[in-house]
Amino acid sequence: MRKETQNFQAETKELLNLMVHSIYSNKEIFIRELISNSSDAIDKLKFNSLTNVELLNDGKDFKIVLKGDKDKGTLEIQDNGIGMTFEEVNENIGTIAKSGSKAFLEKIKEAKENKDLDIIGQFGVGFYSAFMVADEITLLTKSPLSKTTVKWLSNGDGTYEIEEVENLEDLVRGTKIILHLKEDDKDFAEEYRLKSLVKKHSGSIKYPVMLGEEKLNNEKPLWKLDKKDITDEMYNEFYKSTFFDTENPLMSFNFKVQGSLEYNAVLFVPDRTPMDFYTKDYKRGLQLYCKNVFIMESAENLVPEYLRFLKGVVDTDNLSLNISREILQQNNELSKISKNLEKKILGEFSKLLKTDREKYIKFWEIFGQTIKFGIQELFGLNKEKLKDLVIFKSSFEDKYVTFKEYVDRMPSDQESIFYVTGESEEMVKSLPKLKALKEKGFEILYFTDRIDEFTIKTLSEYSGKKFKSITASDFKLNEEEAKKDEDLEKENKTTLDKFKELLGDKIAEVKLGNNLGSSAVAMTSKGEISLEMEKTLSQMPGNDKVKAEKILELNPEHPLFEKLKNANDEEASDLLEILYDQALLIEGFKIENPIKFAEKLNKILSK
Ligand code: ADP
């Protein structure tokens, strides 16, 4: 029979080292990790047995058994799941093969530096976490595909022993893990401790978790229970233990659908963006079960991209069990479930928007951007479904409003929905044009997210009203105002043309600005590319040459305008340069040459 002593792979050693020196104060989570490995192992066995019934020859009485021995200071966790062959033990327990564990290692190191140990709970820390409480671990495992039992032993230093051993009477199939507890952690062998830990961390494991004759958990899966029997506490515990979060979810949903389409779903919206949400490692999708058998971890086609933040479980009886996971991805039944789920979820969001604005805003501030992206993606395919879920802050009361609320209280002669773009609420609120319009009684939406204008472009209109930026050069309140402005513009045409000439190519036009309030200048743009778009695009590689056609607007009511008109060319040129830079600054751009700006300003100041 084979016997080897092996070195842990370097990264495993690193992880082990962190575990042995117990980086995490919340050591008790090792029990959640081991029980969940056992539960996964039973899932795997059940899944594989769909195509190979013989795997179940040693029984179908699935369970996870705990045994604590205070005197010896040991704790055993045993399951009758899939077990591992010799090669599998080497592969799975000797190395960190998965990118997930590597990511975890990175995060731990970061967290350790920042003393932010809370984040560790967000990851599945895995088998090695047992070294937080044990100074020696023995793993015995028997795969139904192998004749002999495998024994693995390590005390968390650089090496482990692995050997084939005689089969054990009490381990016909599955895995038994024996922890020799550290001196300070011996209480993990105590019955009362085990009971409370299992209740806390593994209460909703699907298989019986036994301590002697006593079953510690309620293994009927949550989604199979009657809705009225499920408390908030149960949803929260299920969410945290299934999706490795330390916080309760923001929302929980439970759908039981019967009829031609049949499924149970328990879904959650996390109460913060998951750590890797914006990386390619993030796995969208829901856990899929069929007739209580676990099929896959993240069935992507169960939720559209714009609901990628949803976590949860879907269980359906309507799938044929022996189709491959790849084929499942295009399965017709699943698409129907997905469509149905999408409708239900959107219904819930819209209900929440009406009944609990505060909670909806919390949701929006975490995941609103994802919904806005949903409007843009697929050439606006989903925009009709989503447009009434969108909220923006507005000048009305600096609160969030829907498009519908905005349109419903628009003055009858207002033709478009007004918006203003800028980096922050603070900034847009201080724009002269906004202040002036607000005083006149108009409401303006604040677009402070870089993607807002792109979203609006896809939407193009709401309830027949186009969207209009108050900082666009062709912005006009109404016909009467437009006429007045036009006359004034004509009167000053030669002066303005001269100003344009003095400023040169950086500006497309110099105009008189309306609604500038007490400000001397404003920057606007004409054409396809807005100022805000120029800012966004300039940060993407290859797009830094994309420029908005800028228009400098001068306030005819400001004393500086008179001064400009009466100045000689040199003075006018200096003043215009300063005003141009000022306008850039107000709009949140950098000025091109700060030194020149300072020189010109000083020249004028010292006159
Ligand atoms: P993870 O559970 O995140 O994959 P672990 O470090 O906990 O990472 O486990 C590594 C691998 O070892 C598992 O993916 C699985 O293949 C195997 N394994 C762990 N525990 C068991 C068990 N009780 N039965 C069978 N295989 C197991």
Question: What is the element layout, followed by pairings?
Answer:
Elements: E1 3-7, H1 10-20, H2 29-49, E2 64-69, E3 74-79, H3 86-94, H4 99-114, E4 134-142, E5 149-154, E6 159-165, E7 174-181, H5 191-202, E8 209-211, E9 214-215, H6 232-243, E10 251-257, E11 263-269, E12 286-290, E13 293-299, E14 311-316, H7 325-328, H8 332-355, H9 357-380, H10 383-386, E15 391-393, E16 400-402, H11 403-408, E17 417-421, H12 425-429, H13 432-439, E18 445-447, H14 452-459, E19 461-462, E20 465-469, H15 479-491, H16 493-503, E21 509-512, E22 521-526, H17 531-538, E23 549-554, H18 559-566, H19 569-586, H20 594-605
Parallel strand pairs: 2-8, 12-14, 17-18, 17-20, 21-23
Antiparallel strand pairs: 1-6, 2-3, 3-7, 4-5, 4-7, 5-6, 8-9, 10-11, 11-14, 12-13, 15-16, 19-20, 22-23
Helix pairs in contact: 2-5, 8-9, 9-14, 18-19, 19-20
The structure holds adenosine-5'-diphosphate (ADP).
Describe this structure in words.
The chain is α+β, with helices and mostly antiparallel strands. The chain has 4 domains: 3-215, Histidine kinase-like ATPase, C-terminal domain (Heat Shock Protein 90); 222-355, Ribosomal Protein S5, domain 2; 390-469, 3-Layer(aba) Sandwich (Rossmann fold); 479-605, Up-down Bundle (Four Helix Bundle (Hemerythrin (Met), subunit A)), CATH 1.20.120.790. The protein is 39% helix and 20% strand. The chain is built from 20 helices and 23 strands. The strands form 5 sheets. The chain has a 9-stranded mixed sheet, with helices on one face. A hairpin with a 6-residue loop joins strand 15 and strand 16 (400-402). The radius of gyration is 33 Å and the shape is elongated. The N and C termini lie far apart (98 Å). The structure holds adenosine-5'-diphosphate.
